Amino acid sequence: MTAQDTTAQGGGGGERLYLLKVLGPVHVWALGVGIVLVGEYMGWNFSVGKGGALGSLIACWIIGLLYTCVAMIDSEVTSTVAAAGGQYAQAKHIIGPLMAFNVGLYLVMAYTMLEAADALVVGDLLVQVAAETGYAALDPKPFVVLTIAILAWLNYRGVFMTLTVNFVITAIAFIAIILLFLGLNPWNPSESLFHKQLLTDLPYGWIGVVAALQFGMWYYLGIEGTCQAAEEVRSAGRSIPLGTMSGMMTLLIAASLTWFLASGLLPWEYLGQSGVPLYDTSRMTDSNGLQVLLFIGTLFAAVASANGCINDAARAWFSMGRDRYMPIWFGAVHPKYRTPFRSIVFLIPIAVSFAFTGLLDQVITFSILSGLLGYTFMSFNVVKFRNKWPLGTIKRGYVHPFHPIPAILLLTLCSATYFATFLGYGTSLISIMIFYIVASVWFAMHRYRFVYRGDQFTMPWPRPIGH
């Protein structure tokens, strides 16, 4: 090992430091659901503005199918390629360096911008509550910085503590949705919910449903982040599939309940532009207890999501540094806490700068598009994975059924969502495509020469079929 390698791993001696294997299925669930559950508290409702309440529900279920395919595919490949970086590590082993660089960048940008959106929600929620209770107008920016700084410190100190905290606050946020549902007496909905009066036909027709697919992703965006824990779980073959699939089931329940409650109390015209729709829903109940509960739930969901995003973005960036796709300096492991501490600290100002724009829908759109590019990659990746290493040639922790139907379905739904994004945010779509093309050119012309191809393939697999 060279002195540079030793320094990059965070140690001062000759022993190479590694991330600790301390996580179980409950932590994987907390990471995946923790990142996503904020989407039930905000963001999803912009799909109502695109397609009406019924259009949003259709988008919720269609995109739920997309993410079920993502969860199934990820569970198989990640439980086999058990390395930090998740989909980045998969691309490195299965396709090649240029694809791996792009996938790593998709992950970092998706999670960093989602983190910025979460911090924005925390700041806006506290400002709104302060205004409702008679306090002078507050500036949300200090709350944004404080949220990101505290969570970055938590991530810096250790992954076990970080995801244990995430499990607790995510569980509270999920229970808050259940209690709101029970508090509205769903067995007699006509007494407290007004779907008959509020639900209309599709206001913009089926083209509105297609447009709603973009923000329908917010119900589930980030569940693929469970892959980032692959190197730190005690048993990847058990923890990744169990944590990911149970997380997806949790989100399908939470998404359906969220739509049912909000659409039954808020007119679709208002719901489609609300910043905190579930909190606004609780305000319509005339129950101070439910209002306080949903304030806590919204706050906890946003904090849990930002916490998980810091974890995932840092591990993707750390993995790219460790493999020299980025400067090896970022591949350092803290000698005491065994965390990718330099990557955590480096990404803080980037998240803060996105949050300071205050453009929640634009930040969400950039996060969605980065995630969507990653999902498109998955559909090709799993086909190449099965072709290169057919079943029986290597040990898999999980085998997803019905191959290649999930891959084909995923690619089809991704294509529809690109079109949906183009309808409302065509400029953003083109801009982010140009960004990734420029980044690819930079990697090919400048950074690629630092990558050691011989060090890329770290899995103990036989030579792939056809090579």
TrEMBL record:
Q: Which GO terms describe its biological process?
A: transmembrane transport
Q: Which domain of life is it from?
A: Bacteria
Write out the transmembrane intervals: 18-39, 51-73, 94-114, 134-156, 163-184, 204-221, 242-262, 292-318, 339-357, 363-383, 404-423, 429-445
Q: Where does the Amino acid permease/ SLC12A domain start and stop, copy by copy?
A: 34-428
> In what way does this protein cross or attach to the membrane?
Multi-pass membrane protein
Q: Does the keyword Membrane apply?
A: yes
Q: Which GO terms describe its cellular component?
A: membrane
Where in or outside the cell it occurs: the entry states: Membrane
Main subcellular localisation: membrane
**What keywords sit in the KW lines?**
Membrane, Transmembrane, Transmembrane helix
Name assigned to this protein: Amino acid permease
Give the species: Ferruginivarius sediminum
